[in-house]
RNA sequence: GGAGGUGUGGUGUAGCGGCCUAACAUGCUUCCCUGUCAAGGAAGAGACCGCGGGUUCGAAUCCCGUCACUUCCGCCA
């Protein structure tokens, strides 16, 4: 019996061997006499040459074969004749001459072609996902996904971690995202929730003495989708006992450095060890807490230069407790009115009231501007402002400013910075720019509810030195929380947890949870923490986003085998779908549908 | 909940008030062809232009509504 080979692995050294290959017809070239079939399996492509003089039966069978038929070919590997070598294929020096040609299954013409990488309508791809996944780039993405999770498991196993599964049906403890709910048949009127993450369970495993836990965990959040967000997604979830923040950072940094070097050796890691920014520094320099440090163009604060300016937009904002910051856009001084308006509209959608700009002309040191805002500044003031952005500012450049409260300024300019980085081609696509953002605020004031909300989650520990601030100025307290960022994506986030009952009680108090409330929602956690909870902390890394980075994809659907559409439907199986009255009755559920929409009336 | 983009043979696009009885590529069907490799050549089938309404002498094309996909805002501890 001939050895079964992956089609894409046949080479010159196999010449003369009798082999069997299984796969799909990628394409077929019928020269009248000779027929060439390019057979595709997961490993790649190989050519089968069928000559009617060698094997009339095989030739007859091959004549009826069409694209995507499933074949099993047993034959001899032959070196291709001189001048017929195909450099584009790894197997291009050889071909298979079949002794046995079996059609395992025919195939109808496909709704779209899978043997090239041309764009296909997203709906078609999702409806026929099993065909979309035949395309080599999608197969490569899933192969990369496997390699990443394999690397993670090996890395953590070597360091003494245990992979432990946690339940998918858990208790709903609403806070943060909306839960997916599952009705209980046995307990009428009661519901399970699908986990938004295994957060509480992994902390309880620390109380159990597992010490080092990890899980490649599915998480569920019933929120609207984005290019990098699906309602169900996967996290590498990690928790450790008896450790400091530094231990977690080292662990994850080692993991991602190793993965990058092993799985994408062609990509350079921008800086190692990964640079670290405090939350405040990241907000000040990049305008967000997930800075893309593949390019500069940092936010520049000109508040002190313009606080007494005649330009009321600037001086007024500062007088109201705000600030004025700007970006230096090299070469954009020649933007048309239309393009400038485009920038203004861009920042407006992020809460800025407007965007002031200075189109610079002349020589460095004596720059001038004819822009409307320029008339409020003396030539000296204009120089000072320009210089604040650095010595490289020159005629032909554009300076843009947002004047507002710091949060608005940061958001508007942070978004604009990312947009302009892309537009001006400042981003090197061949690097991984990892960094850490640390020292997040612990709490943020919720004006609507008149209480404090946890920025990370309610079990996040304050920095020890900031515990007294919980009494005096909770908004100033920093958390032992940290995010790892890569190329502007938040790739992982975690914290050291509270294991002290008093601090936890204080936190719940600030968040205005009543005693009953706390007990009902987190009683199991508080009880557990009374039986000897070790100091612990952890992190969760977004697996899907990690794969996106490792495959250069900009869409999460391309790294998930069976993703959902933006309206959270599965086009392949048509989920969600109405269910039988019987099922509903068994679950003690009566529908109260909005009048206009009935289930099952898509299209 | 809101804003933008897209919707034309199986697939990807062009056409953006009359030349459209809708074009091109690819795929599909039939035929020719023994060294192709995105094989080539010949012939052919296939879309009432997402759906509904309106404007107009005339609509794939303009307007309104609606549905779907998509990107973004809100939302996502």
What does this structure look like?
The chain is an alpha+beta fold and about 600 residues long. It has 17 helices and 25 strands. An eight-stranded mixed beta sheet has the order 7-10-11-25-24-23-20-13, with helices on both faces. The structure holds one RNA strand of 77 nucleotides.
Short description:
This protein has 17 helices and 25 strands. It is of the alpha+beta class and 603 residues long. The two termini are 53 Å apart.
Mean pLDDT: 93
Distance between the termini: 53 Å
Helix content: 25-40%
Radius of gyration: 30 Å
Portion in strands: 15-25%
How many strands, what sense, and barrel or not for the largest sheet? 8 strands, mixed
Extract low-pLDDT stretches: 597-603
Features:
603 residues; alpha+beta; 8-stranded mixed β-sheet; 6-stranded mixed β-sheet; 17 helices; 25 strands; 24% strand; RNA-binding
Indicate the topology.
Elements: E1 3-4, E2 18-30, E3 35-41, E4 44-50, H1 56-64, E5 70-79, E6 94-105, H2 122-127, H3 129-132, H4 136-158, E7 162-163, E8 181-183, E9 191-193, H5 199-207, E10 212-220, E11 232-241, H6 245-263, E12 268-269, E13 276-278, H7 279-286, E14 300-301, H8 303-306, H9 312-319, E15 323-329, H10 337-348, E16 356-361, E17 368-369, H11 379-388, E18 398-404, H12 406-423, E19 431-432, E20 434-438, E21 443-446, E22 451-454, H13 469-472, E23 481-486, E24 489-496, H14 501-510, H15 515-529, E25 536-542, H16 543-551, H17 581-586
Parallel strand pairs: 1-2, 7-10, 12-19, 13-20
Antiparallel strand pairs: 2-3, 2-5, 3-4, 5-6, 8-9, 10-11, 11-25, 14-15, 15-18, 16-17, 16-18, 20-23, 21-22, 23-24, 24-25
The protein binds one RNA strand of 77 nucleotides through residues 27, 29-36, 38, 47, 49, 51-53, 66-67, 80-81, 83-84, 86, 88-89, 92, 109-113, 115-116, 118-124, 126, 175-178, 196-197, 199, 221-224, 226-227, 229, 349-350, 453-458, 460, 565-567, 571, 602-603.
